[in-house]
Fold these 3 entries.
Entry 1:
Amino acid sequence: MNFFQGEILAIDKPYRISSFGALAHVRYLLSRKLGRKIKIGHAGTLDPLATGILILCTGKATKKIESLQYHTKEYVAGLQLGATTASYDKEHTVNYTYPTHHITRELVLQTIQQFIGDIQQVPPTYSAVKVGGERSYALRRAGEEVKLQPKTVHIEEIELLDIDPTTMQMTIRVVCGKGTYIRSLARDLGRALGSGAFLTSLRRTRVGKVTIQDCVNYDHFAEWLDTIEIDFENN
């Protein structure tokens, strides 16, 4: 492999590590192995509380990042019904609770259909969306109110994998296009069910044709480098 000429890698990003933090770790290990700095970027951010596929491009392959971001993605998401948080996930504590006695498996199956196709979605205010040159999450953490505009996103599939009528927790599989926020989908699904919902877990399981099975283990990346043939030429 020639990381200077350009390689496209996939790692399985762990929980509570930012995409930039994961990239920095891999860049450090690669640079140490190669004996000099290597250019590297990622194609599609994952929240720190999310796990799964993070595509990394090295060297000249960083030119492909923009096109790679348009690849279809698949997620498996856990949702808690009957409550909301400010960030639509577990980063913040519950701020409101809602009734769930009327929610049945059949109602969920009917409701998720309205989110398939091209839909309007408002990004979470706790996100990296820029507002006047500043990141939205930074403004929110500074105590400022932020209002984001809806945008069109495409959701190809939503499948209900499981729902527990006792805990009101459910698991869905989502296949979607670029720019879709699963946290916003959780928020909107909760509202459509006449209740509330927030994300309890999120795992990116596919990007284009890349699956979890194709990923390099993040914690053993250095060991993986020792098993491959590396071309050290920088042409």
Entry 2:
Amino acid sequence: MKQQKALTLKTLTKSNVWEVEENDIFRMWETAEKESDFKDNRNHYMDVIRSAFEIEEIKIDKPEVIKKYEARDFKVGNIHFDDNDNKKWGIKKRAINRITDLTYENIHHISAAKLIEVLDRNFGGGWDSLSQSIQDIIESGFDISTTTLPKDRLHKPGGMYDKKVNDGYEVLEITKGLWVEAIFAKAKPKVENHHKHDDDNDSMNNGFDDNYDEDLEDENPSENSYDDDDDDDFDEDKLTEESYRTTFETEEDLNLEAEDVADDDY
């Protein structure tokens, strides 16, 4: 709240504008219009506001018209462009409901739970079905890791799922035939200049490799790989969840792989 109160139209950017609400815009505009350079910067202010808010000019100033805007969750107020130009605006914060609504500017202003909600509303194919550009945006604001396991192994006590949830990660489960892909998300600490794309390259691996190695060391450091040529030594109890980690392209392949695992258990 302190940061929001300190913001003015002059200090508003396409990133921090997501921190304010409709009433803050009306308040900041009213304060800014008293400043000598207001007219020179007016178009810039408008561009910044429009990046995070829907703005509609209400040309018919009647109660029944205003009620229709308010029914659509618009906040209505007066905006002065100059001494002879008084306009009534309807302003509404842009919703973040779809994957395509995510940007480098707003990704740091949503929670991990909100991200999971957006992914769940749009998903079907899993993490790899997202475009690289969307993955980059998400990973600029969140630590992401994934695992794909048979349904009966995903929630194994003490496994990766439990560890991630206990560490504060939100999780989305996507069913893929007899297997389930779990996507874990946790917000990164906010840093200055976070939207510089070059600074985000180190986070492109979505946490997959680091978690893979770490969990292997914690659970079975001597069994880091599975040798297909050594079927006689196969011990189902020694399989860690990382041994299953993979992504399949078709449901048919998933079912075949699941059958192979079942056969080996005997």
Entry 3:
Amino acid sequence: MKTKLFFLSIIFLPMMATAQLKPFDYNDGQQALSGFGIKPKKELDGKPAVLILPAWMGIDEHSKETATKLAALGYYAFVADIYGKDSRPKNTSEAGQKAGFFKNNFTEYQNRIQLALAQLIKLGANPDKVVVMGYCFGGTGAIEAARGNLKVQGAVSFHGGLGKEPTRATDKITLKVLVLHGADDPFVPKAEIENFQTEMRNSGAVRK
């Protein structure tokens, strides 16, 4: 009997650990959104938090797993819904179109990030101790959070798109920015990398 209970605990304890990750419904006007939030069982001092921006296919298991792992470390975490509850891409073609829209309409992207940030704060996170991070399309969003000077302490981009329209103004960036980008990434031209580096220097994000 004890052996049986032991194996049952091995099966169900991981499920209990992820049970804290819950869906949270919110709205952008008439557009219904639904992200995922999680509270740490043992929070760190100051209630720090991480806002997670998913890759181009939208909320997936990877982004939810990241939130769960962050909660295990003591952070509040929230996975943002950028596309909308009834507007999730069904394939990569749709994902490219939807991601392209937000890349070209950066104020819409920044707004969706801000709405998710508000949900993270409602969850109990300290509004003065939040970092936003994202992968690929989400990494682009993290950079847009920095460009828009959203109220976060820092932005972390993992192989996100770096480019912006040449006619777009370069504003001062006050938060900390970490961009992790492969030197031989075939999807981002060298000129785009160099322009981004210049942008970060001119914005004050690169501190000497």
